[in-house]
């Protein structure tokens, strides 16, 4: 069987022809199906945006895009034009993230967006969905990537905190998803002290709480003195790690929560002293295991280290192709 | 091995020098002999296991991992040892022995041969986790690259046991890993190692670049900076050694010098090959290129000895006849060296001449002429400076002549390793064979990977990625649109390169984002600068 003609990868996104709509387009379109709120997948300015209520709330916060917002609950099926059914299923990536199942003429296509398989207290778990065409990400698509259990990494963070009671641990974490997950995991590990936030983190954390994800006591760095922050955890966007902003902190130990921290020189390039290998993406084993479990007729790879995942398909005699979509960033995960 | 592996990782992530010193000192105090001695040897690149090479690791992995996945991973990580530590398949059942100690690791690595390594190394690897495997690979192949110089490790040793680092340096070369006597002396107050009759290496005195400093020639003396390799000759107890700047014993490479020095002394000078390239007939020295063919050899043929005879141009005397002169001012050491010269065979030794000038301005003029004489530049030494290890501010300066410049076009780029893994940071550039409008083509003339800032590196990396026209494994061919102003010290004829040229010390001087590629220089311009 050949690839279906009704679903067409273009550099600017995936086009669903019969329904005349796009999935995660990188340019403004008439109708967009959006998997999750990260800026490389969710752009403002679409005529109509179909996404989960959480994703829409995140997009609203970032781009004021209330207009044309069409909420779709997990598990709900929408009948689009041209006989295409769309169902949103949890992807386990960040709050509101969804895989989109498209059905047309007896064929099933799943677009994962970004996803992970590990448990995450801040979002619904990935739901495995059988399909014919599996359109997957490959951010960590190299066999060197094995994400350790998050409890180990949180343990490292708390260990550093305990060993340096006069300092603080400054954690660089992506403002949407990673930051809230690190905070929630710290709470789960019994750390109930106030956590200090960079100003850029505040609104997203409040939104998470409004959407039912408790994060404990959060304070703004700007409102507190060095003395008060000693022995505490501070969370900031990765870009602020080596910024002058961090001078107001008491002897910060620089940490970063990212899957890239697995590679020593990546940590060194960012002057990270305490690398925390925490990722919201599937690692190599999970990427390949998921393909085996979904068992599609064909895998399409949207972005990331697609060469290695293609090679894996070849070695396992599975059909796959790389889509070469533009504009999907992954450097800060 | 776990503690050592933890130390290695902690060193990688620690930025401050004091932080690194504390980590090493803590480890040395907490770890028993001989583990700590082996660890210290590993940190100072003092271990060499002939059976384990980077290629051994690659081959081991390619037996276990798909070669394509291996290359893609290696390319991404930028480090063979680290990639292998990740990709080594975890054993199906738990290892039947605990992780090896550092000493056990060293013992089994030493016992491995080229024939046995493929069977024996896996047994060690199976007893370690990814961090342990990384430390093992680094230890086995030498070159830890954890941002610790041999000097820093010795300073840490001094701090750990509150002893003088200069004494540590001094005894260091008298001892071999695992340095048990050194620890006995420093940690337990035992007698220091007896070094009186050993041909020991003394750390070199080095110079800072002069840059914008102006010195008074009443206080400073000028000498030519010859373009060879800095060496130290030591003769004691009937034995002679030749040491390179890093303290490596290179006596076997220059046997003629061993026989030439028969007086107890420690001498500092420039090793050169006879010729007339540097400074003409009077200069008496061939180009660095001529010397290069003699470097790195374990044995030397008769032909080599007659075709490229080596000699040493002496700069300084650290000891003569058993007297340590290092605390004396330069002028007194110089006087002693001058009176020693008649007793040294002039076939193999001469004296570095003082460059006379009335004042600094006149000296600057003389330096301008250094290029015509194909000399690297000038050295300025304080007349009252003692001979001290390392670079001490204000005592010695090097004043290299200004570099040559040529406009080249970026042709190929390769990813760097270490701190620059994932960045395209190694550049091959070319010049035009003829006017590009009349069919001239670009021919590679050199490679450079320095001279730009981190910010510029990011821009260059982006340029390479966005202007790739071809890929050959890890190498990208670019569209040849970007011009580099390349600085270099000299250029020599070379049969090894297609262009027939080899540049010395090429580095990116400026990135000419503004300059069209067809305006870059032609190869003729470089040929005109050859002084061989």
Main attributes?
heterodimer; A: 333 residues; alpha/beta; Metallo-beta-lactamase, Chain A; Rossmann fold; 2 domains; seven-stranded mixed beta sheet; six-stranded mixed beta sheet; 8 helices; 24% helix; B: 532 residues; alpha+beta; D-amino Acid Aminotransferase, Chain A, domain 1; OB fold (Dihydrolipoamide Acetyltransferase, E2P); seven-stranded antiparallel beta sheet; 20 helices; 22 strands
List strands and helices in order, with pairings.
The complex is a heterodimer of chains A (333) and B (532).
Chain A: E1 7-10, E2 13-16, E3 21-23, E4 31-33, E5 48-51, H1 53-63, E6 69-71, E7 77-80, E8 84-90, E9 98-104, E10 107-111, E11 133-138, H2 150-163, E12 168-172, H3 178-188, E13 195-197, H4 199-210, E14 218-220, H5 226-229, E15 233-236, E16 252-257, H6 264-269, E17 274-276, H7 284-294, E18 298-304, H8 306-315, E19 319-322
Parallel strand pairs in A: 3-4, 4-5, 5-6, 10-11, 11-18, 12-15, 12-16, 13-14, 13-15, 16-17, 18-19
Antiparallel strand pairs in A: 1-2, 2-3, 7-8, 8-9, 9-10
Chain B: H1 2-13, H2 17-30, H3 35-43, H4 54-62, H5 67-77, H6 80-87, H7 102-111, H8 117-125, H9 130-141, H10 150-161, H11 165-172, H12 180-188, E1 205-206, E2 208-209, E3 220-225, E4 229-236, E5 239-243, H13 255-260, E6 265-278, H14 280-283, H15 288-292, H16 302-307, E7 310-320, E8 323-324, H17 330-340, E9 349-351, E10 354-355, H18 360-368, E11 377-382, E12 390-391, E13 396-400, E14 404-415, E15 424-432, E16 442-448, H19 454-466, E17 468-472, E18 475-478, E19 483-488, E20 490-493, E21 501-504, E22 507-512, H20 523-527
Parallel strand pairs in B: 1-12, 2-13, 7-9
Antiparallel strand pairs in B: 3-10, 3-11, 4-5, 4-6, 6-7, 7-8, 11-13, 14-15, 14-18, 14-19, 15-16, 17-18, 19-22, 20-21
